[in-house]
Write a structure and sequence with these properties.
By secondary structure, this protein is an alpha+beta fold. The chain has a 7-stranded mixed sheet, sandwiched between helices. β14 and β15 form a beta hairpin. α1 packs across α11 and α7 packs parallel to α8.
Protein backbone atom coordinates (compact mmCIF):
# COMPACT_ATOMS: atom_id res chain seq x y z
CA UNK A 1 0.00 0.00 0.00
CA UNK A 2 1.44 3.35 -1.10
CA UNK A 3 -1.22 6.02 -0.49
CA UNK A 4 0.79 9.06 -1.49
CA UNK A 5 2.68 7.45 -4.36
CA UNK A 6 -0.52 5.94 -5.81
CA UNK A 7 -2.46 9.20 -5.56
CA UNK A 8 0.33 11.13 -7.23
CA UNK A 9 0.43 8.70 -10.15
CA UNK A 10 -3.34 8.91 -10.56
CA UNK A 11 -3.28 12.71 -10.69
CA UNK A 12 -0.30 12.71 -13.04
CA UNK A 13 -2.41 10.86 -15.62
CA UNK A 14 -5.59 12.83 -15.02
CA UNK A 15 -6.34 14.79 -18.21
CA UNK A 16 -6.99 18.40 -17.17
CA UNK A 17 -5.95 21.98 -17.95
CA UNK A 18 -3.33 23.09 -15.41
CA UNK A 19 -3.42 26.70 -14.23
CA UNK A 20 -1.17 26.16 -11.22
CA UNK A 21 2.57 25.93 -10.61
CA UNK A 22 5.06 24.61 -11.68
CA UNK A 23 5.46 26.49 -14.91
CA UNK A 24 6.20 23.52 -17.14
CA UNK A 25 2.57 22.33 -16.69
CA UNK A 26 3.07 18.62 -16.41
CA UNK A 27 5.99 18.60 -18.82
CA UNK A 28 4.18 20.38 -21.66
CA UNK A 29 6.55 23.34 -21.44
CA UNK A 30 9.67 21.55 -20.33
CA UNK A 31 12.99 22.11 -22.10
CA UNK A 32 13.23 19.55 -24.91
CA UNK A 33 16.65 18.37 -23.78
CA UNK A 34 15.30 17.44 -20.36
CA UNK A 35 12.32 15.70 -21.89
CA UNK A 36 14.57 13.66 -24.18
CA UNK A 37 16.96 12.76 -21.37
CA UNK A 38 14.44 11.95 -18.65
CA UNK A 39 11.17 11.36 -20.46
CA UNK A 40 8.00 13.35 -19.81
CA UNK A 41 6.54 10.91 -17.30
CA UNK A 42 8.46 12.33 -14.36
CA UNK A 43 7.30 15.86 -15.14
CA UNK A 44 3.67 14.79 -15.18
CA UNK A 45 4.13 13.79 -11.55
CA UNK A 46 5.90 17.02 -10.61
CA UNK A 47 2.78 18.45 -9.00
CA UNK A 48 2.18 21.03 -6.25
CA UNK A 49 -0.07 20.85 -3.18
CA UNK A 50 -3.30 20.10 -5.00
CA UNK A 51 -6.35 19.30 -2.83
CA UNK A 52 -6.10 15.56 -3.47
CA UNK A 53 -2.40 15.54 -2.53
CA UNK A 54 -2.75 16.89 1.02
CA UNK A 55 -0.56 19.52 2.74
CA UNK A 56 2.84 18.65 4.21
CA UNK A 57 2.49 21.16 7.06
CA UNK A 58 -1.10 20.29 8.00
CA UNK A 59 -1.57 16.73 6.72
CA UNK A 60 -5.06 15.24 6.88
CA UNK A 61 -5.13 12.94 3.85
CA UNK A 62 -2.61 10.90 1.89
CA UNK A 63 0.48 12.50 3.46
CA UNK A 64 -0.83 11.79 6.93
CA UNK A 65 -1.63 8.23 5.90
CA UNK A 66 1.82 7.75 4.38
CA UNK A 67 3.57 9.19 7.44
CA UNK A 68 1.49 7.00 9.75
CA UNK A 69 2.50 3.90 7.76
CA UNK A 70 6.12 5.03 7.95
CA UNK A 71 5.89 5.42 11.73
CA UNK A 72 4.54 1.87 12.00
CA UNK A 73 7.24 0.50 9.72
CA UNK A 74 10.17 2.24 11.43
CA UNK A 75 8.89 1.82 15.00
CA UNK A 76 8.04 5.45 15.77
CA UNK A 77 5.05 7.06 17.43
CA UNK A 78 5.11 9.84 14.82
CA UNK A 79 7.04 10.38 11.61
CA UNK A 80 7.56 13.49 9.51
CA UNK A 81 8.60 13.39 5.85
CA UNK A 82 11.48 15.77 5.06
CA UNK A 83 12.15 17.17 1.61
CA UNK A 84 15.16 19.33 2.58
CA UNK A 85 17.23 16.33 3.62
CA UNK A 86 18.30 15.32 7.11
CA UNK A 87 19.86 18.77 7.35
CA UNK A 88 16.46 20.38 7.90
CA UNK A 89 15.46 17.67 10.37
CA UNK A 90 18.60 18.19 12.45
CA UNK A 91 18.18 21.95 12.43
CA UNK A 92 14.51 21.63 13.33
CA UNK A 93 15.03 19.38 16.36
CA UNK A 94 17.76 21.66 17.71
CA UNK A 95 15.47 24.68 17.26
CA UNK A 96 12.66 22.80 19.00
CA UNK A 97 14.70 21.44 21.92
CA UNK A 98 17.10 24.25 22.90
CA UNK A 99 16.77 28.01 22.78
CA UNK A 100 18.98 31.05 23.12
CA UNK A 101 21.66 30.47 25.75
CA UNK A 102 20.57 26.92 26.58
CA UNK A 103 23.09 24.08 26.50
CA UNK A 104 23.12 20.99 24.32
CA UNK A 105 25.66 18.17 24.47
CA UNK A 106 27.13 17.09 21.13
CA UNK A 107 30.08 15.06 19.86
CA UNK A 108 32.74 17.24 18.26
CA UNK A 109 32.57 15.12 15.08
CA UNK A 110 28.96 16.18 14.49
CA UNK A 111 27.77 17.08 10.98
CA UNK A 112 27.84 20.74 9.95
CA UNK A 113 24.02 20.83 9.87
CA UNK A 114 24.04 20.60 13.68
CA UNK A 115 26.28 23.66 13.81
CA UNK A 116 23.76 25.44 11.58
CA UNK A 117 21.12 24.50 14.15
CA UNK A 118 23.24 26.02 16.91
CA UNK A 119 23.70 29.22 14.93
CA UNK A 120 19.98 29.56 14.25
CA UNK A 121 18.86 28.62 17.77
CA UNK A 122 21.50 30.48 19.76
CA UNK A 123 22.12 27.35 21.83
CA UNK A 124 25.45 26.77 23.57
CA UNK A 125 27.31 23.58 22.56
CA UNK A 126 28.98 21.41 25.15
CA UNK A 127 31.30 19.42 22.90
CA UNK A 128 32.52 15.98 23.91
CA UNK A 129 35.38 14.16 22.23
CA UNK A 130 34.66 10.76 20.76
CA UNK A 131 37.34 8.07 21.12
CA UNK A 132 39.90 8.51 18.34
CA UNK A 133 41.77 5.70 16.59
CA UNK A 134 45.10 6.99 15.23
CA UNK A 135 45.72 3.76 13.32
CA UNK A 136 42.67 4.39 11.17
CA UNK A 137 42.48 8.17 11.68
CA UNK A 138 38.82 7.79 12.64
CA UNK A 139 36.66 9.11 15.46
CA UNK A 140 34.13 6.70 16.92
CA UNK A 141 30.94 7.28 18.89
CA UNK A 142 30.35 8.97 22.24
CA UNK A 143 30.78 6.80 25.31
CA UNK A 144 28.17 6.64 28.09
CA UNK A 145 30.87 7.66 30.57
CA UNK A 146 31.61 10.88 28.70
CA UNK A 147 27.91 11.73 28.49
CA UNK A 148 27.46 11.12 32.23
CA UNK A 149 30.47 13.23 33.11
CA UNK A 150 29.35 16.09 30.88
CA UNK A 151 25.92 16.11 32.52
CA UNK A 152 27.53 16.23 35.96
CA UNK A 153 29.71 19.18 34.96
CA UNK A 154 26.84 20.93 33.15
CA UNK A 155 23.60 19.83 34.88
CA UNK A 156 21.68 22.51 32.95
CA UNK A 157 22.15 20.69 29.62
CA UNK A 158 18.73 20.54 27.94
CA UNK A 159 19.33 17.82 25.34
CA UNK A 160 21.91 15.27 24.19
CA UNK A 161 22.72 14.90 20.48
CA UNK A 162 24.48 11.73 19.31
CA UNK A 163 25.83 10.60 15.94
CA UNK A 164 25.09 6.94 15.18
CA UNK A 165 26.30 5.44 12.93
CA UNK A 166 29.39 7.23 11.68
CA UNK A 167 30.18 7.26 7.97
CA UNK A 168 32.17 4.07 8.53
CA UNK A 169 29.21 2.28 10.17
CA UNK A 170 30.28 2.56 13.82
CA UNK A 171 27.55 2.82 16.48
CA UNK A 172 28.07 3.74 20.15
CA UNK A 173 26.28 2.21 23.13
CA UNK A 174 23.01 4.07 22.58
CA UNK A 175 21.11 1.91 25.07
CA UNK A 176 23.39 3.00 27.92
CA UNK A 177 23.36 6.63 26.74
CA UNK A 178 19.56 6.57 26.57
CA UNK A 179 19.39 5.25 30.14
CA UNK A 180 21.43 8.26 31.24
CA UNK A 181 19.32 10.83 29.39
CA UNK A 182 16.13 9.23 30.68
CA UNK A 183 17.42 9.43 34.24
CA UNK A 184 18.11 13.13 33.70
CA UNK A 185 14.76 13.51 31.93
CA UNK A 186 16.21 15.19 28.85
CA UNK A 187 15.65 14.18 25.22
CA UNK A 188 18.13 12.04 23.31
CA UNK A 189 18.46 13.13 19.67
CA UNK A 190 20.19 10.72 17.29
CA UNK A 191 21.56 11.65 13.88
CA UNK A 192 20.96 8.25 12.25
CA UNK A 193 21.33 9.64 8.75
CA UNK A 194 23.32 6.60 7.63
CA UNK A 195 21.21 4.02 9.47
CA UNK A 196 17.72 4.10 7.99
CA UNK A 197 18.14 0.42 7.02
CA UNK A 198 18.90 -0.91 10.50
CA UNK A 199 15.28 -1.85 11.17
CA UNK A 200 15.10 -4.33 8.32
CA UNK A 201 17.58 -7.09 9.10
CA UNK A 202 18.63 -8.74 12.38
CA UNK A 203 22.31 -8.62 11.40
CA UNK A 204 22.33 -4.82 11.50
CA UNK A 205 22.85 -2.73 14.63
CA UNK A 206 19.59 -2.14 16.52
CA UNK A 207 17.87 1.07 15.37
CA UNK A 208 18.14 4.06 17.68
CA UNK A 209 14.37 4.14 18.29
CA UNK A 210 14.54 0.65 19.80
CA UNK A 211 17.40 1.65 22.09
CA UNK A 212 15.62 4.58 23.73
CA UNK A 213 16.12 7.60 21.48
CA UNK A 214 13.43 10.28 21.61
CA UNK A 215 14.10 11.86 18.20
CA UNK A 216 15.83 10.19 15.25
CA UNK A 217 16.73 11.76 11.91
CA UNK A 218 17.33 9.41 8.97
CA UNK A 219 18.48 10.09 5.42
CA UNK A 220 16.15 7.65 3.71
CA UNK A 221 17.86 8.43 0.41
CA UNK A 222 21.31 7.36 1.65
CA UNK A 223 20.65 3.65 2.14
CA UNK A 224 17.03 3.04 1.10
CA UNK A 225 15.19 3.66 -2.17
CA UNK A 226 14.11 7.28 -1.77
CA UNK A 227 15.31 10.09 -4.01
CA UNK A 228 18.21 12.31 -2.99
CA UNK A 229 17.16 14.89 -0.37
CA UNK A 230 14.25 12.76 0.89
CA UNK A 231 14.55 11.98 4.61
CA UNK A 232 12.48 11.21 7.70
CA UNK A 233 12.25 12.44 11.27
CA UNK A 234 10.91 10.01 13.87
CA UNK A 235 9.63 10.62 17.39
CA UNK A 236 9.07 8.03 20.09
CA UNK A 237 7.79 8.51 23.63
CA UNK A 238 6.27 11.48 25.44
CA UNK A 239 9.37 13.49 26.37
CA UNK A 240 9.08 15.69 23.27
CA UNK A 241 6.02 17.76 22.32
CA UNK A 242 5.37 17.03 18.62
CA UNK A 243 3.91 20.51 18.17
CA UNK A 244 7.37 21.94 18.82
CA UNK A 245 8.69 19.83 15.96
CA UNK A 246 5.83 20.95 13.70
CA UNK A 247 6.58 24.62 14.36
CA UNK A 248 10.31 24.21 13.85
CA UNK A 249 9.90 22.31 10.59
CA UNK A 250 7.80 25.14 9.18
CA UNK A 251 10.83 27.40 9.62
CA UNK A 252 13.27 25.24 7.69
CA UNK A 253 11.29 23.32 5.05
CA UNK A 254 10.18 24.66 1.70
CA UNK A 255 6.55 25.75 1.42
CA UNK A 256 6.63 24.24 -2.08
CA UNK A 257 7.55 20.63 -1.28
CA UNK A 258 8.44 18.27 -4.09
CA UNK A 259 5.84 15.52 -4.35
CA UNK A 260 8.35 13.46 -6.29
CA UNK A 261 10.48 13.36 -3.13
CA UNK A 262 7.49 12.76 -0.85
CA UNK A 263 6.20 9.93 -3.04
CA UNK A 264 9.64 8.35 -3.11
CA UNK A 265 9.61 8.23 0.70
CA UNK A 266 6.25 6.48 0.61
CA UNK A 267 7.53 3.99 -1.97
CA UNK A 268 10.79 3.36 -0.10
CA UNK A 269 8.81 2.62 3.06
CA UNK A 270 6.55 0.17 1.20
CA UNK A 271 9.56 -1.60 -0.32
CA UNK A 272 11.09 -2.13 3.12
CA UNK A 273 7.79 -3.21 4.68
CA UNK A 274 7.28 -5.91 2.07
CA UNK A 275 10.77 -6.99 0.96
CA UNK A 276 13.23 -5.37 3.35
CA UNK A 277 14.77 -8.43 4.97
CA UNK A 278 15.10 -10.28 1.67
CA UNK A 279 16.79 -7.36 -0.04
CA UNK A 280 19.20 -6.77 2.82
CA UNK A 281 20.06 -10.46 3.10
CA UNK A 282 21.22 -10.31 -0.50
CA UNK A 283 23.19 -7.12 0.22
CA UNK A 284 24.90 -8.66 3.25
CA UNK A 285 26.00 -11.57 1.07
CA UNK A 286 27.51 -9.12 -1.43
CA UNK A 287 29.23 -7.19 1.34
CA UNK A 288 30.76 -10.37 2.76
CA UNK A 289 31.96 -11.40 -0.68
CA UNK A 290 33.64 -8.02 -1.19
CA UNK A 291 35.24 -8.06 2.23
CA UNK A 292 36.64 -11.58 1.89
CA UNK A 293 38.02 -10.86 -1.58
CA UNK A 294 39.75 -7.62 -0.55
CA UNK A 295 41.40 -8.91 2.63
CA UNK A 296 44.22 -10.85 0.90
CA UNK A 297 45.04 -8.13 -1.65
CA UNK A 298 48.56 -6.82 -0.86
CA UNK A 299 48.76 -3.30 0.54
CA UNK A 300 45.12 -3.10 1.70
CA UNK A 301 43.61 -3.17 5.18
CA UNK A 302 39.87 -3.65 5.70
CA UNK A 303 38.14 -1.93 8.61
CA UNK A 304 36.47 -4.56 10.80
CA UNK A 305 36.23 -3.13 14.32
CA UNK A 306 35.55 -5.11 17.46
CA UNK A 307 33.50 -3.77 20.40
CA UNK A 308 35.54 -1.19 22.33
CA UNK A 309 35.15 2.34 23.64
CA UNK A 310 32.85 4.16 21.23
CA UNK A 311 32.02 1.00 19.26
CA UNK A 312 29.06 -1.10 20.37
CA UNK A 313 27.86 -2.19 16.92
CA UNK A 314 29.14 -2.11 13.35
CA UNK A 315 27.25 -2.00 10.06
CA UNK A 316 28.72 -4.71 7.79
CA UNK A 317 27.44 -2.98 4.64
CA UNK A 318 30.02 -0.23 5.16
CA UNK A 319 33.33 -1.10 3.56
CA UNK A 320 36.31 1.04 4.58
CA UNK A 321 39.65 0.28 2.93
CA UNK A 322 43.02 1.65 4.08
CA UNK A 323 45.25 2.18 1.02
CA UNK A 324 48.24 3.73 2.80
CA UNK A 325 50.11 0.42 2.41
CA UNK A 326 50.21 1.18 -1.32
CA UNK A 327 51.85 4.55 -0.72
CA UNK A 328 48.57 6.28 -1.64
CA UNK A 329 46.32 8.69 0.17
CA UNK A 330 42.61 7.98 0.08
CA UNK A 331 42.20 11.02 -2.15
CA UNK A 332 44.79 9.80 -4.65
CA UNK A 333 43.32 6.30 -4.70
CA UNK A 334 39.87 7.76 -5.21
CA UNK A 335 41.04 9.72 -8.22
CA UNK A 336 42.55 6.60 -9.80
CA UNK A 337 39.51 4.45 -9.04
CA UNK A 338 37.12 7.07 -10.37
CA UNK A 339 38.91 8.24 -13.50
CA UNK A 340 40.66 5.04 -14.59
CA UNK A 341 38.85 2.04 -13.11
CA UNK A 342 35.22 3.19 -13.03
CA UNK A 343 34.63 2.67 -9.30
CA UNK A 344 33.48 5.62 -7.18
CA UNK A 345 33.64 5.63 -3.37
CA UNK A 346 31.30 7.46 -1.04
CA UNK A 347 34.04 8.98 1.12
CA UNK A 348 37.77 9.41 0.50
CA UNK A 349 39.87 10.45 3.49
CA UNK A 350 43.55 10.87 4.20
CA UNK A 351 44.41 7.20 3.97
CA UNK A 352 41.16 5.33 3.44
CA UNK A 353 38.04 5.13 1.32
CA UNK A 354 34.55 4.18 2.47
CA UNK A 355 32.00 2.47 0.20
CA UNK A 356 28.24 2.21 0.84
CA UNK A 357 26.73 -1.11 -0.22
CA UNK A 358 22.96 -1.44 -0.60
CA UNK A 359 20.40 -3.62 -2.38
CA UNK A 360 20.95 -1.34 -5.38
CA UNK A 361 24.36 -2.92 -5.91
CA UNK A 362 24.85 -6.01 -8.05
CA UNK A 363 27.27 -8.90 -8.27
CA UNK A 364 28.80 -7.11 -11.24
CA UNK A 365 29.42 -4.03 -9.06
CA UNK A 366 31.20 -6.14 -6.46
CA UNK A 367 33.38 -7.84 -9.05
CA UNK A 368 34.29 -4.47 -10.52
CA UNK A 369 35.24 -3.22 -7.04
CA UNK A 370 37.41 -6.28 -6.40
CA UNK A 371 39.08 -6.05 -9.82
CA UNK A 372 39.73 -2.33 -9.35
CA UNK A 373 41.49 -2.84 -6.04
CA UNK A 374 43.48 -5.73 -7.47
CA UNK A 375 44.67 -3.46 -10.28
CA UNK A 376 45.37 -0.62 -7.84
CA UNK A 377 47.47 -2.98 -5.72
CA UNK A 378 49.41 -4.44 -8.66
CA UNK A 379 50.23 -0.97 -9.98
CA UNK A 380 51.42 0.40 -6.64
CA UNK A 381 53.07 -2.49 -4.83
CA UNK A 382 56.50 -0.97 -5.40
CA UNK A 383 55.51 2.18 -3.54
CA UNK A 384 56.68 2.80 0.01
CA UNK A 385 53.81 2.76 2.53
CA UNK A 386 52.71 6.16 3.71
CA UNK A 387 53.84 7.30 7.10
CA UNK A 388 51.07 7.64 9.64
CA UNK A 389 50.66 11.41 9.77
CA UNK A 390 47.91 12.79 11.96
CA UNK A 391 45.41 13.82 9.32
CA UNK A 392 42.34 13.79 11.54
CA UNK A 393 39.83 16.59 11.72
CA UNK A 394 40.38 19.01 14.59
CA UNK A 395 40.07 17.61 18.10
CA UNK A 396 39.43 20.17 20.84
CA UNK A 397 42.05 20.38 23.54
CA UNK A 398 39.62 19.78 26.39
CA UNK A 399 36.27 18.10 26.82
CA UNK A 400 33.13 19.57 28.31
CA UNK A 401 34.24 23.19 27.94
CA UNK A 402 32.18 25.97 26.41
CA UNK A 403 33.22 28.03 23.38
CA UNK A 404 34.39 31.60 24.00
CA UNK A 405 31.46 32.75 21.87
CA UNK A 406 28.36 30.79 20.97
CA UNK A 407 28.20 29.81 17.30
CA UNK A 408 25.38 32.32 16.85
CA UNK A 409 27.26 35.17 18.54
CA UNK A 410 30.34 34.46 16.45
CA UNK A 411 28.38 34.08 13.22
CA UNK A 412 26.83 37.55 13.56
CA UNK A 413 29.85 39.26 15.13
CA UNK A 414 31.97 41.80 13.27
CA UNK A 415 34.84 39.98 11.61
CA UNK A 416 37.92 40.69 9.54
CA UNK A 417 40.13 38.82 7.11
CA UNK A 418 43.66 37.90 8.15
CA UNK A 419 46.40 35.74 6.69
CA UNK A 420 46.09 32.13 7.81
CA UNK A 421 49.43 32.35 9.68
CA UNK A 422 48.16 35.38 11.62
CA UNK A 423 44.97 33.64 12.77
CA UNK A 424 46.58 31.51 15.48
CA UNK A 425 44.71 31.87 18.80
CA UNK A 426 42.10 34.12 17.17
CA UNK A 427 38.37 33.33 17.37
CA UNK A 428 37.10 31.90 14.08
CA UNK A 429 34.19 33.57 12.27
CA UNK A 430 33.73 30.86 9.63
CA UNK A 431 32.40 27.31 9.44
CA UNK A 432 35.27 25.54 7.67
CA UNK A 433 34.58 21.98 6.75
CA UNK A 434 36.34 19.23 4.76
CA UNK A 435 33.58 17.73 2.60
CA UNK A 436 32.71 14.98 2.64
CA UNK A 437 32.19 13.96 5.44
CA UNK A 438 30.90 17.40 6.44
CA UNK A 439 32.45 17.45 9.92
CA UNK A 440 33.65 20.98 10.74
CA UNK A 441 37.37 21.38 11.30
CA UNK A 442 36.70 24.77 12.88
CA UNK A 443 33.48 26.66 13.49
CA UNK A 444 32.34 30.15 14.47
CA UNK A 445 33.26 30.83 18.09
CA UNK A 446 36.16 28.36 18.37
CA UNK A 447 39.76 29.37 18.96
CA UNK A 448 42.04 28.63 16.03
CA UNK A 449 44.84 26.37 17.23
CA UNK A 450 48.07 25.21 15.66
CA UNK A 451 46.59 21.71 15.39
CA UNK A 452 43.62 23.08 13.48
CA UNK A 453 45.80 24.95 11.01
CA UNK A 454 48.05 21.94 10.48
CA UNK A 455 45.04 19.68 9.88
CA UNK A 456 43.52 22.08 7.33
CA UNK A 457 46.80 22.50 5.46
CA UNK A 458 47.34 18.76 5.33
CA UNK A 459 43.79 18.13 4.08
CA UNK A 460 44.46 20.46 1.15
CA UNK A 461 47.92 18.98 0.49
CA UNK A 462 46.48 15.47 0.39
CA UNK A 463 43.83 16.49 -2.14
CA UNK A 464 40.82 17.06 0.12
CA UNK A 465 38.16 19.70 -0.50
CA UNK A 466 37.44 22.47 2.00
CA UNK A 467 33.99 24.06 2.06
CA UNK A 468 32.55 27.01 3.95
CA UNK A 469 35.67 29.18 3.85
CA UNK A 470 35.43 32.64 2.36
CA UNK A 471 38.82 31.89 0.76
CA UNK A 472 38.76 28.28 -0.53
CA UNK A 473 42.55 28.33 -0.93
CA UNK A 474 42.81 29.03 2.83
CA UNK A 475 45.49 31.64 2.38
CA UNK A 476 43.23 33.85 4.49
CA UNK A 477 40.58 33.27 7.11
CA UNK A 478 37.97 35.44 8.82
CA UNK A 479 38.31 36.01 12.56
CA UNK A 480 36.27 37.92 15.13
CA UNK A 481 37.31 41.52 15.73
Amino acid sequence: MTPLFSRLLALAHNNHAAFYAPGHKGGQGIFSGLAQAWGKEIFRADLPELPDLDNLFAPEGVILEAQTLAAETFGADQTWFLINGSTCGIIAVILAMVGEGEKILLPRNVHQSAISGLILSGAIPVFVNSPYDPQWDLSYGLTPESVEQALQIHPDIKAVFVLSPTYQGVCPDLKAIAAITQRHNIPLIVDEAHGSHFKFHPNFPPPALELGADLVIQSTHKTLGAMTQASMLHLRGTRVDPQKINRALQLVESTSPSYLLLASLDAARAQMATRGETLWSETLTLAQRARQALIPIPGLKIFDPQPQAGIEYFDPTRLTVDVSGLGLTGYAADEILTETLGVIAELPLGRSLTFILTFGNTNQDIQRLIDAFQTLSENNQAQQPLNKPNISTHQPETCYGLPQLSPRQAFFATSRTVALEASLNQICAELICPYPPGIPAIMPGEKITAATLASLRQTLQLGGVITGANDPSLKTIRVID
